[in-house]
Amino acid sequence: MAEQMTEQMAKQTLLEAFNAASYPLTGSSRWNVNQLLEAFRSIDGEQDSDIYGNGAIIENFQAKIASYLGKPSAVFFPSGTMAQQIALRIWSDGAGNKKIAYHPLCHLEIHEQNGLHELHHLEPLLLADKSRTIGLEDIQQMTEKVSCILLELPQREIGGTLLPFSELEAISAYCRERGIKLHLDGARLFEVLPYYKKTAAEVCRLFDSVYVSFYKGLGGIAGAMLAGDESFTAESKVWKRRHGGDLISLYPYIISSDYYFEQRLPKMEQYYHAAIELAELYNSCQHIETRPEVPVSNMFHVHAAVPKERLEQLFKAVYAETGVGLTRYVREVDADNSYFEVSLGDRYLGTPKDKVREALGLLGAKLAELKQQ
Amino acid sequence: MAEQMTEQMAKQTLLEAFNAASYPLTGSSRWNVNQLLEAFRSIDGEQDSDIYGNGAIIENFQAKIASYLGKPSAVFFPSGTMAQQIALRIWSDGAGNKKIAYHPLCHLEIHEQNGLHELHHLEPLLLADKSRTIGLEDIQQMTEKVSCILLELPQREIGGTLLPFSELEAISAYCRERGIKLHLDGARLFEVLPYYKKTAAEVCRLFDSVYVSFYKGLGGIAGAMLAGDESFTAESKVWKRRHGGDLISLYPYIISSDYYFEQRLPKMEQYYHAAIELAELYNSCQHIETRPEVPVSNMFHVHAAVPKERLEQLFKAVYAETGVGLTRYVREVDADNSYFEVSLGDRYLGTPKDKVREALGLLGAKLAELKQQ
Q1: B115 with A242: Cβ contact below 8 A
Q2: A 74-133 near B (Cβ less than 8 A)
Q3: Which of A157, B87, B185, B189 could form a disulfide with A105 if both were Cys (CB 3.0 to 4.6 A apart)?
Q4: Which fold has domain B50-248?
Q5: Which tens digit of pLDDT belongs to each residue from A298-332?
Q6: Interface predicted TM-score (ipTM) of this complex, two decimals
Q7: Which of the following CATH numbers is that of domain B2-29+267-372: 3.20.20.70, 3.90.1150.10, 3.30.2060.10, 3.40.50.150?
Q8: How many of the other CB atoms lie within 10 Å of CB of A340?
Q9: Whole-number pLDDT of residue A203
Q10: pLDDT averaged over chain A?
């Protein structure tokens, strides 16, 4: 019987095991059609669609988020990929300088199939190295003139790390003095506000343009907002049309974005404290460390000095014994090391604390055994 | 009292009057959130979302439409603007030739803010003049070598006109012999199949790549499909990512596209006959002619030798007296002439014939009076 279980478990993927767990810990909900149905449950069906960027549904939401971000204007986009390429293109065209600067692990550098070059012919300068965030010194030491710098808060690909707010202020002042536009990749901006103890507007006033996402910590279906002054957003609408993003109807994303913004923005502080709590439990396990050690948002990365397949086996055993799902995937770093990302939301808040401790305790025990083998 | 009515009417926009009419004749439904709610009414909420182009929801629909179009493969896009620029870019890159050819009133030429040039640096050659469709001769007489030709069936901006199927076959053979790729702008392909008496696959086999839309005659919310051979669609996915169209979740558009495809594809023949019927009624009015005179799809344009404001007044009076809404807008051609587009769907089919005749009869009477003034 136990042997049969083990055989079944071996066949199951980690994702399947995670989805079957009673207490999946990451995210806010399963990524399925119910996300949409829930958001539309109380919506009046007679409400007119937006039409190619016009209409109350889109204009009201744009005004609401512009106001929240403390910017004169905002434009809803189907994706951040589109919004951010466009922001950099506008600043580059304005300065007549194709050079822009960002982090080597910036979304535009590693996740967009080189669209920034293939479509916009922009030339990125990479600031800082892969292991840390961009600091004021990196910018001061630039030897080439750039039209724009993109900063991502927090830097997702290194676990969600942040530079101190005072350094952000110094970077902003430095760039303004030199006429360098500063763009905020705020894919997870909402998520860092509790750590910074700032309003979104207090962060955004340091930047000339801002992108925020509605499906990261907020857990919407898709969609992004690009904010800035009126002339910037007017130009961004022309580029949105060019990119094929000016859809006749964007309301499926707008209504759901607005719904989850209202539902989950007030919980960002809870998600942040949950991440600190869970990271501490992970760090108490042998062979494991989180990056950052103490999270500054709802996310962190878990690095394990354990091969990917081995870690997956351990996790499946933990899920089976405790009913707690820790991660849906593990990625290989090299033959001996692996990692995964943790991003917390409603699911963690809804899980009994003793279940979380039980699961991490069991994981710790299994990792300790591993060493002895 | 009558004066009061007139004053009210004068203040009302034509769109408001159209929306207030008991029998609006164009389109299939009001463009509002009910379109989405209806499509999702019978959908299982537990169905997993597509994730960045993967998952059963998107893959099954792509396979279904590829098969319907008789192509090896298809990719769902948020918009036709994105899909078509990408198709032309792929063919252009493949041939190492930035020249492509299309009609002067092609969507890419007049509705996309010059995206094809600004993003893809392609150089369009305009074939035929604005008043007619591209024919074989136009292509034979090209003096420059192009990588690709785009044909739109039907040519929307001139009322939805078509060239004979035999000429389409001749164009296809001519282009294949010369290694020129042929791309179909099939925004309204479903709508012309009853006239051609062909299956979609019979039309599409004349083309190397095909775009179809789910919100024109079908009345979905938004969304498009790009079809072709496997290597073409694989490349188009890379470009979709670059354009910012590879959204984490596209299912709000996919599910609604599939729903309205099933609902309305079988009615295209009825819509087509409705257009012939209504065009005949318009053509019986003085000062009015439709283009084409006899429609070949569910659409046609109505041209009036009447100034825009005057025509709007007449329409508002007809809507008020009969309850029938004929058009939501009128566009100025010049000081003496105006026009609008008619596209028929479920609403026309659901309107009693005597109401239609009553409205067009009254319009005819008012137009005849106009002449006598």
Answers
A1: yes
A2: 77-83, 85, 112-115, 118-120
A3: A157
A4: Aspartate Aminotransferase; domain 2 (3.40.640)
A5: 999 999 999 999 999 999 999 999 999 999 999 99
A6: 0.96
A7: 3.90.1150.10
A8: 20
A9: 98
A10: 96
